[in-house]
Amino acid sequence: MKMPYSTGLLFNSPNGVDRATQLIVTCLNDSVNIPSNIELQVFRWDTSQNARIPIRHDLFQLPAQVSKTLLYTLNTADYFEVQSDFFSATSTIIQAYSLDSVGNITQRVLQSEMMWIDRFTNIP
Fold first, then answer.
1. By the 8 A CB rule, do 14 and 23 touch?
2. Beta strands of 14-99 (E only): which ranges?
3. Would you give the DSSP letter of residue 78?
4. Considering the chain, what percentage of its residues have pLDDT values greater than 70?
5. How far is CA 73 from the centre of its chain?
6. 3-state helix, strand, coil in the chain (%, to 5)
7. Which residues, 6+ apart, have CB-to-CB distance to 69 below 8 Å?
8. What pLDDT, in 10s, does the model give residues 64-106?
């Protein structure tokens, strides 16, 4: 059974120039002829870390040899996490980048740096 990936809990500096305001998730289906079904869940936490708050849940099909970039707002996110999985095409790549208010990359998590988790977090 294939398990989803997670960036883990990523710190977003609450003050200063390193505060990320946006999250970009890039998806690439490098298969020659098989579409990929992709599922993404993005969460945020405040400084208390008591509650995981869903930002968005996306489920879509990506045709072969096509990429897609998704943009999420990180307002009030002192921590954030991306959970991802793909089905069908096995040569799919998903990566996450956080950006500050002027578009500089503050953090990046490549798929090879993500960890496997046993399941997606249930969203109420």
1. no
2. 22-29, 36-45, 53-62, 66-73, 79-88, 92-99
3. S
4. 98
5. 12
6. 0, 50, 45
7. 24, 25, 26, 27
8. 999 999 999 998 899 999 999 998 878 899 999 999 989 999 9
Q: Is the pLDDT of residue 1 over 70?
A: no
Are the beta carbons of 74 and 20 closer than 8 angstroms? yes
The CA distance from 16 to 95, in Å, is 25
Q: How far is CA 5 from the centre of its chain?
A: 9
Q: Let me know if 103 is exposed, middle or buried by CB neighbors in 10 A (0-12, 13-18, 19+).
A: exposed
The candidate with the shortest Cα–Cα distance to 97, out of 86, 79, 82, is 82
**DSSP run (H or E) holding 115:** strand 115-116
Structure tokens that stand for 101 in this block:
């208010």
SS3 34: coil
- 101 sits in the region (left: phi over 0; alpha: psi -120 to 50; else beta) called alpha
